[in-house]
Write a structure and sequence with these properties.
Blueprint lengths: L1 H17 L6 E6 L4 H13 L7 E9 L7 H17 L4 E5 L2 H8 L6 H19 L3 E3 L4 H15 L8 E3 L6 E3 L7 H11 L15 H15 L3 H11 L13
Parallel strand pairs: 1-2, 1-4, 2-3, 4-6
Antiparallel strand pairs: 5-6
Helix pairs in contact: 1-2, 1-7, 2-7, 6-8, 6-9
Length: 251
Amino acid sequence: MLEMKRILGGIRRADEQYHLFSDGDKILVGISGGKDSLTLVTALKEYARFCPAHFELTGVHVDPGFGEDDAEVRRTVRASLETYCASLGLPFRVIESPIAKVVFEEHKEDNPCSLCARMRHRALLEDALAQGCNKIALGHHREDAVDTFIMNLLHEGRLGSMPPARTLEGTSVTLIRPMLTVSEKDILAYAKEAGLPVMKNPCPADKHTERETVRKWLEQEDKAHRGVYHRVFSAMQKGHIEGLTGSDDEI
């Protein structure tokens, strides 16, 4: 598939630029059930076939507890992800997390994404440490990086986004984003063509967040001035935002 070739090309370039993979890596791949994480775990399984470094993969799903009264739906999600990871020949685990209760009941967050992400990352980190994994791979792509850059610029007055790789404070675990230079368009096309078992996002705030507002604005600008995401990401690379490097010819 053409889209998978483009995705693998992006992962290979990111690996060459940011040294994401090393011999003996044990990588925990966060799998939410969305198109991005399912594409990531599929692509990494393929990339392992020709990557110079030998690494192992484990799929992990953080169950945030949304729809806790609908146990059947949650069982279906877990079973689907377990079956898909089994088809790739990968081990799979589920981590229970009180994200839904903490974010929406205790904190009553109007914009829950930041706290939710921190709790997910903490759950993945604790599991990685317990299982002896030295890396955590997440499925963020180019548009995610640009959205984050614009949000930080407009709402916090700072230049920052998502680093391709960073060592998590106080640990020897590195968080990597192998698809950070890959476009969402290629991920969408691949997920559809490959028939990935993509799950609907159960979060009650889905499509109603600050990030979604920024995403819609950028998409409108991209329609009016084709290539906005491409140009902003290129500027981020040239400015070495969060250690990004490269040129727009490589996107």
